[in-house]
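Protocol step 4 of 5: obtain the predicted structure for the target chain.
Materials: sequence only (see below). No template structures provided, no constraints applied. The aim of this step is simply to have a reference model before the mutagenesis design in step 5. Sequence pasted as it appears in the construct record:
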Amino acid sequence: MSKTVPFETTALVRDTCLCLHAQRAARALARLFDERLRPVELTHGQFSMLMSLNRPEPASMGSVAGLLAMDRTTLTAALKVLERRGLVQVSVDPKDRRGRRLELTVEGRARLAAAVPIWRETHGAVEAGLDGLDADALRASLRALG
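Step 4 output (structure tokens):
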């Protein structure tokens, strides 16, 4: 098992790997949104989590995990942080005591409302900086991968 991979293969992966390019773009966007959301004490992930809970009725763990493409263990860990901060309430599902229902608290709704204008401004700037790329086509392509 002492085979080596030629540098040309490294360059090929560097230049063409969809996973690598998606990860790099995701990290760059995450850093930008984290920085911009700092005044409201949220990360981009927490913003997405709160937004996913902004519903007329409490959400199930499964529906939120599916929307955010997270496994339940990761979702549970992220929710605990928001619950400790008083932004999310986790309660027993009255229809199935094994399940949990998730909802925003009053403070969670207020924090989300404070974050939305920041998200709008940042998101608009990102889209404006796409240099001729069609943002809708990009979103459709990303959804096709997920």
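Step 4 remarks: Residues 7-128 form a domain with the Arc Repressor Mutant, subunit A fold (CATH 1.10.10.10). Helices lie at 7-16, 18-37, 44-52, 61-68, 72-84, 106-128, 135-145.
Proceed to step 5.
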